[in-house]
UniProtKB/TrEMBL annotation, chains A, B:
Protein name, UniProt field: Transcriptional repressor
Binding of Zn(2+), residues: C88, C91, C128, C131
Keyword set includes DNA-binding: yes
Family matches, as SUPFAM superfamilies: Winged helix' DNA-binding domain (SSF46785)
Amino acid sequence: MSTTSESPQRNTRQRRAVAAIMADLEGFASAQQIHDILKQRGESVGLSTVYRNLQALADADLLDALRNDDGETLYRRCSSGHHHHLVCRQCGRTVEVEGPTVERWADAVADDHGFRDVEHTLEIFGTCGDCAS
Amino acid sequence: MSTTSESPQRNTRQRRAVAAIMADLEGFASAQQIHDILKQRGESVGLSTVYRNLQALADADLLDALRNDDGETLYRRCSSGHHHHLVCRQCGRTVEVEGPTVERWADAVADDHGFRDVEHTLEIFGTCGDCAS
DNA sequence: ACTACTCTCGGAAACGATTGTCAAATCCGT
DNA sequence: ACGGATTTGACAATCGTTTCCGAGAGTAGT
């Protein structure tokens, strides 16, 4: 499988259901939460399947994935291109932010120390206005 | 535990052994790796104890902790104060970096969106000069 | 529509890091 | 050295996630 094709990607009810949830969802959610939501909507999908499909979507860059402090992986739909997140630690509301300054700073710092092929991760956590009251 | 004192903090062989390892260690290491190193040095310490002491040291801001992509928590000694890391993804060599500009930017962005109690995480990964050759 | 060939599903078992339990060992002030 | 509190450590339990594997469902070819 080194050469070309990804797997053919079949169009299943479960795949559609997970994608639909993610399209609606505002903040980050864990695989288990998404599994619960599916159950509530009556579109029951096996937990393993939820995990698999979320991974697939994340691999295809259709979802952002991040780990919270509890070690859970959270998913959320995302716009294309490089960006970071401002996440409410109460309700999960998320704002995508860009910071050209930060990008340049990170690259410059890495360059100063002779590092190549630089990447970075940056997340901002806080309590949003609504949750603060 | 809201009120006053930290726990009395006793000076045990195990606590000293863990602290000693961390003083020597150059890059980030997982609790289990540290447990192994202790065993090799003949200073055997229970795994739970290693976990507990690493957490305690991290809580006391004597160690930095970060999670790798595999979900393991890695520890490393650190200087005091807020800082970030530039980590070589090959050899683990780590440089502590500061970025007042970034701090201000993050706070400003969060403030713009009405977020309070803001924290952020930022790590830079790359290949260091030595490993690039 | 029928067949054959996969890919996918799902429930249960496996996994791996971490945390909890609790009796025994160890500290440390007195 | 004594005694009460903390800490240790072997083991079990937890928790998120992954893997297994037989059954089920898409899809292409006829």
